[in-house]
Amino acid sequence: MSSQPEYILEQKLIEQLLALGHKKVKICNEAELIKNLKTQLEIHNKKIFSDKEFEKILNHLSKGNVFEKAKILRDRFQFTKDDGSSEWIEFINQDHWCQNQFQVTNQVSQSGEYKNRYDVTILINGLPLVQIELKRRGLEMKEAFHQINRYHHQSFTSGSGLFNYVQLFIISNGVNTKYYSNNAKQSFKQTFFWSDEHNNNITQLEEFAQAFLEPCHIAKMITKYIVLNQTYKILMVLRPYQYYAVEKIVERVRNTDNNGFIWHTTGSGKTLTAFKASQILKEIPKVEKVVFVVDRKDLDYQTQKEFDAFEKGSVDATENTRHLVKQLSDGTKLIVTTLQKLNTAITKEKHGRKIEHLKDQKVVFIFDECHRSQFGETHQNIKKYFENAQMIGFTGTPISEKNSVGKLEGQAATTNMLFGECLHKYVITDAIRDDNVLKFSVEYVGRYKEKEGSNTYIDTEVEGINTQELLESPKRIEKITDYIISEYGRKTHQKTFNAMFCVSSIEVLQKYYDLFQKKKEEGKHHLKVVTIFSYGSNEEAKEADGIHEEEADDLGMVAEAAAQYGDSHSRNVLEKYIGHYNEMFGTNFTTKDSQSFYNYYNDIAKRVRNKEADLIIVVNMFLTGFDSPQLNTLFVDKNLKYHGLIQAFSRTNRILGEKKSQGNIMCFRNLKSATDEAVTLFSNKESIHEVILQPIEDYIELFNSALLKLKVIAPEIESVDRYQTEQEKFEFVHAFREVMRILNILKSFADFSFDTLDMKEFEFDGYKSKYLDIWTSTHPKTGGEGKESILDDVDFELELIHRDEINVSYILTLLANLKDSDLKGAKREQKMKEIREILSGDAQLRSKKVLIEKFIEENLPLVADGDSVTDEFETYWNKEKVAAFEKIATEESLNKDKFQETINQFLFTSKTPKLSEALQLLEIKPKLKERNNIGKRIIQKVQDFVEVFIEGVEG
Fold it and tell me: SS3 for 588?
């Protein structure tokens, strides 16, 4: 049998779970679930509850959403017994996690919006804490993921909402198995394979169950390795390499006084790992304090928010060392501080006296990003002051003798020398393989690109020439500026993402910035360009070869007199640039005091993350530690090498949705050998092809190969119309989606053109239209009986289809051009056909297609000229909008003022109206049994109205 039916998979898994120590229990519905819960809580707490007492417990357990229930699960509960006395109970034993009651059941039915039946459920003390969804072999795991998302909407919250206690979901098709935390907002990208300690993934369901679902291990994951993020009110579970790193650190601190370090690649979530380790270490009795140390320039707004999310109030972001000294001298167990403040506290005598009692105590220091050269000095000072200190370092790019730039006691200052043994390793190739970070697409722009007609050829006098005069010549700088302006849209998917540009010195940055500003004033681009650089006394280091950790204090915030700030010219220039920034964003920053400059640093970081800035130009700042998934492109006119290169490139490769398929690196210098050396140093030579995307030719080959498979399923566009079965549609969707994914990568190459493919653009658009027809037919606006389809849980990845530059305004421009053209007959008809195909082929415009076509048929012939098209369309659109509004209000008997307010609220918050809010719009109160259907219908009409008349039209 080629495909293993789901029920066989299910039975085999249950047999294995029983062998591992889970007990079988038959539960068919919520009533039986509640009955079993009472029994299990009685066993676990060694108490008997009367029905009235258990009702109080159940009422308590029924409160709250997923996040609040996760807190209830971890807290003890006090209630009043029937005899008036007070009683405490616990829902899970967190200290001795093996000492809980473990059960397994399957096919539990839960009725909500629809009736759903869940595959396999693991209960701990009667609460459903692990939910496993299985698909037959050959099906994508994404489908199991989307099925669980449907359950979130349809049934998990129904009744007492006990399925909202699920902490972990497991999805498997037998061959591949992944786990993830209960967070309905996350994407499939946040699902993880489990692995062994050496990062070998455990994908087979049987092997996964053996390693991960064993009672003690699953309870440990739930009690120790799920983090409740207080800021976003979500659950986060550690990935396997994070788990092993924390286990290694805890083992080292419990059993030895030796130092150690963790090598986890940039972008793999070191902060969460380090913080979780800190939380566990502070509970070890012999550990007096845990001090989590970061560089001040990394403790920006975002990082503070993250730390605070894990442990409320742990971060002191002020510049005041006194507060740190107070924390060190009082009962605070976990302290988050900066390298700079820690150094001041232990080197200044007035502070040192207050913390003398810690000198011989076991204090654990955890260093985030310990590749920074400054850690050397602080490291020595800590060793001198704390006789019993234990130091654990985290780095994505460890320093070896090959890439060391500093010396300690006459030897090269390496990570091994400072921290000793590497306790756990997870390198960039591991992260790319696990889809935790993206590959890099590196293109070299300049004369050395000798490909006929290549878009990366610009005569920039680069190859073999490294004289400062040529590299900084106005002619070269202008050519590069023009190139960035012309390629920006392609690289960032028409501003879906944003970009960074790193340059060799502050002087060169000024030339580039001024040129971008001049060209903007001339109307040659509309990019929001921002910049930041330090203006400290170390400004003379014009070319740091990318070893940008050498910069002593990027923020210029050492406690020195204003006169010490260094070169006044660059400070005045930055003040002028900050003035442009203030004008653009309505802010009021300055370099005149250090706090305002620090606030500017934080604000610029926030705006780059929020995609409010299009391009940030830097010398060294933001090339390490700065994390922004929205950033997908780095333009480079600077010599980078080793850890400097990997750190800089890694600003672009954070995971974000399907459209972001790689980090784009555009080099205006020949960094090919430097890139190969850096990748080799931080993984190995054979890994270069795993880290860097293949050349465009390889992807053209992949595209044409995927196209052949599509043509077997649908030889012509019209073939799709003849499909009789869902299976045929299913196969077409999978085949065309693969074509779309490869095209998405291809489009980011400077040399991309449809002419290089075995498919013309109009043909791709034709297939795309059929693909969208299938999506529309399988995703109706209003639910029917909930009949399941094999297409229900397929991810159509519509973000790959919507082109951000195509909207109503774009269509109106095409119509205006057509109105002013001299095209007649067949040529005019062809142009009109192309416009209609754009309407059919864009996911967002399809909802407006009928109305726009009506405008084209009835109104366009009466419009005087191209200049009048937009005004006439606006009049027409407003008339249609009012008519649609009136029609909905009349059909559903809605209060018009309240209806308009609901639309406004939906636009402002993006939150779908609740059922109760929708029912409040009605002038006549409906019968009780009709309320549900009427409320849902109104909500759908509000969403449809906004989608058709407002999204992609106004503003």
Answer: coil
Beta strands 127-134 and 168-172: pairing type? parallel
Question: What are the φ and ψ backbone dihedral angles of 172, each rounded to 5 degrees?
Answer: -155, 150
Q: Is 387:672 a contact under the CB 8 Å cutoff?
A: no
| Integer Rg of the chain from CA | 31
| Three-class SS state of 119 | strand
Rounded CA-CA distance 143/763 in Å is: 28
Q: Which two tokens stand for residue 90?
A: 């616990």
Question: Cα–Cα distances in Å, from 564 out to 253, 536, 559, 571, 792?
Answer: 43, 8, 10, 12, 65
Q: Residues 235, 226: contact at Cβ < 8 Å?
A: yes
Secondary structure, 3-state, 288-301: CEEEEEECHHHCCH
The pair of structure tokens assigned to 229 is 């993020």
Residue 378 pLDDT greater than 60, yes or no: yes
CA of residue 65 relative to chain centroid, distance: 23
Residue (of 204, 5, 4, 13) closest to 120 by Cα position: 13
Q: pTM score, two decimals?
A: 0.76
Nearest to 678 by CA among 635, 634, 643: 643
Torsion angle of alpha carbons 718, 724, 726, 727, nearest 10°? Answer: -90
What count of other Cβ atoms lies within 10 Å of the Cβ of residue 762?
13
Concatenated DSSP letters for 672-697? HHHHHHHHHHHS-GGGHHHHBPPPHH
- Give pLDDT tens digits for 626-681: 889 999 999 999 999 888 999 999 999 998 888 898 999 999 998 888 888 888 88
In whole angstroms, how far apart are CA 706 and each of 694, 702, 896? 17, 6, 52
Q: What is the Cα–Cα distance from 892 to 883, expressed in whole angstroms?
A: 14
CA–CA distance, 647 with 644 (Å, rounded to integer): 5
Q: Could you tell me how far CA 277 lies from the centroid of its own chain?
A: 23
d(CA 248, CA 426): 13
* CA atoms lying within 13 Å on the CB side of residue 138: 10
Task: Using CB atoms within 10 Å of the CB of residue 146, give its burial: 0 to 12 exposed, 13 to 18 middle, 19+ buried.
Answer: middle
Note the pLDDT tens digit of each residue in 437-468.
Answer: 999 999 888 754 444 455 655 555 544 445 77
Q: State how far the Cα of 486 lies from the Cα of 472, in Å rounded to an integer.
A: 21
